[in-house]
Give the backbone structure.
Amino acid sequence: MELTNTNVRYLLTIYHLSQARLEVSSKDIAESLAVSRASVTSMMSILCGKCLVAKERYGKVHLTDDGCRWARLLAGQTDKLAETLCNRMDVSYEDAWKAACAAVSELPRHIFEPISLTERTRKEVVPS
Protein backbone atom coordinates (compact mmCIF):
# COMPACT_ATOMS: atom_id res chain seq x y z
CA MET A 1 0.00 0.00 0.00
CA GLU A 2 1.29 3.42 -0.92
CA LEU A 3 1.23 5.92 1.93
CA THR A 4 2.08 9.57 1.47
CA ASN A 5 3.99 11.57 4.05
CA THR A 6 0.73 13.22 5.07
CA ASN A 7 -1.00 9.84 5.42
CA VAL A 8 1.78 8.76 7.78
CA ARG A 9 1.55 11.92 9.89
CA TYR A 10 -2.20 11.48 10.30
CA LEU A 11 -1.91 7.76 11.13
CA LEU A 12 0.75 8.45 13.74
CA THR A 13 -1.27 11.29 15.24
CA ILE A 14 -4.46 9.22 15.47
CA TYR A 15 -2.49 6.34 17.00
CA HIS A 16 -0.75 8.64 19.49
CA LEU A 17 -4.03 10.32 20.51
CA SER A 18 -5.81 6.97 20.86
CA GLN A 19 -3.16 5.83 23.35
CA ALA A 20 -4.10 8.71 25.64
CA ARG A 21 -7.89 8.74 25.31
CA LEU A 22 -10.75 6.40 24.57
CA GLU A 23 -12.19 8.38 21.67
CA VAL A 24 -10.41 10.55 19.13
CA SER A 25 -12.30 13.32 17.36
CA SER A 26 -11.55 15.23 14.18
CA LYS A 27 -11.13 18.30 16.38
CA ASP A 28 -8.43 16.52 18.44
CA ILE A 29 -6.56 15.60 15.26
CA ALA A 30 -6.82 19.14 13.88
CA GLU A 31 -5.50 20.64 17.11
CA SER A 32 -2.65 18.15 17.36
CA LEU A 33 -1.50 18.69 13.77
CA ALA A 34 -2.32 22.44 13.74
CA VAL A 35 -4.48 22.05 10.63
CA SER A 36 -8.06 23.00 9.83
CA ARG A 37 -10.94 20.66 10.55
CA ALA A 38 -11.69 20.73 6.82
CA SER A 39 -8.20 19.32 6.16
CA VAL A 40 -8.87 16.56 8.68
CA THR A 41 -12.21 15.75 7.05
CA SER A 42 -10.54 15.52 3.65
CA MET A 43 -7.76 13.26 4.94
CA MET A 44 -10.23 11.06 6.82
CA SER A 45 -11.98 10.40 3.50
CA ILE A 46 -8.66 9.37 1.96
CA LEU A 47 -7.69 7.14 4.90
CA CYS A 48 -11.19 5.61 4.99
CA GLY A 49 -10.77 4.84 1.28
CA LYS A 50 -7.53 3.01 2.11
CA CYS A 51 -9.38 1.11 4.88
CA LEU A 52 -6.99 2.50 7.52
CA VAL A 53 -9.50 4.46 9.59
CA ALA A 54 -13.21 4.39 10.30
CA LYS A 55 -15.11 7.56 11.06
CA GLU A 56 -18.35 7.58 12.97
CA ARG A 57 -21.21 9.94 12.27
CA TYR A 58 -20.38 12.42 15.02
CA GLY A 59 -16.71 12.80 14.23
CA LYS A 60 -15.18 9.99 16.28
CA VAL A 61 -12.26 8.38 14.47
CA HIS A 62 -10.59 5.06 15.08
CA LEU A 63 -8.01 2.95 13.30
CA THR A 64 -9.06 -0.22 11.51
CA ASP A 65 -7.07 -3.42 12.03
CA ASP A 66 -4.90 -2.56 9.00
CA GLY A 67 -4.57 1.01 10.25
CA CYS A 68 -3.44 -0.28 13.65
CA ARG A 69 -0.83 -2.55 12.06
CA TRP A 70 0.62 0.28 9.99
CA ALA A 71 0.45 2.75 12.87
CA ARG A 72 2.14 0.33 15.31
CA LEU A 73 4.97 -0.27 12.86
CA LEU A 74 5.47 3.44 12.21
CA ALA A 75 5.00 4.38 15.88
CA GLY A 76 7.68 1.90 16.90
CA GLN A 77 10.16 3.66 14.63
CA THR A 78 8.94 7.07 15.79
CA ASP A 79 9.28 6.15 19.47
CA LYS A 80 12.83 4.84 18.97
CA LEU A 81 13.85 8.03 17.18
CA ALA A 82 12.11 10.23 19.79
CA GLU A 83 13.94 8.44 22.62
CA THR A 84 17.25 8.95 20.82
CA LEU A 85 16.51 12.65 20.37
CA CYS A 86 15.59 13.00 24.06
CA ASN A 87 18.78 11.26 25.15
CA ARG A 88 21.05 13.27 22.88
CA MET A 89 19.38 16.67 22.93
CA ASP A 90 17.75 18.82 25.57
CA VAL A 91 14.17 18.51 24.29
CA SER A 92 10.92 17.34 25.83
CA TYR A 93 9.55 13.97 24.78
CA GLU A 94 6.57 15.69 23.13
CA ASP A 95 8.84 17.90 20.99
CA ALA A 96 11.10 14.94 20.23
CA TRP A 97 8.07 12.83 19.23
CA LYS A 98 6.78 15.55 16.88
CA ALA A 99 10.22 15.84 15.26
CA ALA A 100 10.50 12.06 15.01
CA CYS A 101 7.02 11.85 13.49
CA ALA A 102 8.02 14.38 10.82
CA ALA A 103 11.25 12.48 10.12
CA VAL A 104 9.57 9.07 9.92
CA SER A 105 6.94 10.45 7.54
CA GLU A 106 9.75 11.51 5.18
CA LEU A 107 11.80 8.30 5.31
CA PRO A 108 11.41 5.71 2.53
CA ARG A 109 9.02 2.92 3.54
CA HIS A 110 11.49 0.12 2.69
CA ILE A 111 13.54 0.94 5.78
CA PHE A 112 10.68 -0.38 7.90
CA GLU A 113 11.03 -3.88 6.48
CA PRO A 114 11.86 -6.46 9.16
CA ILE A 115 15.59 -6.52 8.52
CA SER A 116 18.10 -5.55 11.13
CA LEU A 117 20.43 -2.62 10.66
CA THR A 118 23.39 -5.00 10.91
CA GLU A 119 22.04 -7.14 8.06
CA ARG A 120 21.30 -4.08 5.93
CA THR A 121 24.79 -2.67 6.54
CA ARG A 122 26.38 -6.02 5.75
CA LYS A 123 24.47 -6.19 2.45
CA GLU A 124 25.61 -2.70 1.49
CA VAL A 125 29.27 -3.25 2.44
CA VAL A 126 29.89 -6.84 1.36
CA PRO A 127 29.82 -7.26 -2.42
CA SER A 128 27.83 -10.19 -3.77
